[in-house]
Amino acid sequence: MGSVQPCTDAVARTRDLGLFAERLSASPYGADPEVTEPADEGFWASVRTELVARQGLLLEETYIVNATRRHRLTTENLNAVRAGLGPRALVTVWPDLQPYVGAVLTALPSEWHIEFVREAKDGTIQDVTVDEIQHQELAALMADARAARALPLSTDERTPLFQAVPPDSDGVLRARW
Q1: How far is Cα 37 from Cα 44, in angstroms, rounded to an integer?
Q2: Phi, psi of 129 (to 5 degrees)
Q3: What span, in angstroms and rounded, lies between the C-alpha atoms of 25 and 170?
């Protein structure tokens, strides 16, 4: 059962029947929280500061639901990547890909379900969603990668460095993610 208000009587009756009612802080079927931060000058200044400190970042551009492009950011290409972003795209910034792909693979926990992002030798960046059952296939896929990163799929564990949406040309944030 679910309600926006506490249902103490219903919970008590449920327990009387031998069932276990459990309080949830949010609906498991509810929408994910919206991204409300604008990718404005302050956002890009924060990205630039982090970029200088880390020497590289991975930018994920989601231009429609379930469709993304990824860009490796450097201080030299930040402005060009920023200028090429799609309108109203969700911009998510992660730590950069790691050049030691083998270390990324060995650092995976015994049970996992992840999005594995890799950069091929030709510079293309691709991702694949895998779990621990597909470890051999993942190792084969990563054989020609020059850099990679494992990103969690669980919303509880998926915490990027930054996330924002570019405002429209009039400065208003209209996109809903």
Answers
A1: 12
A2: -100, 125
A3: 37
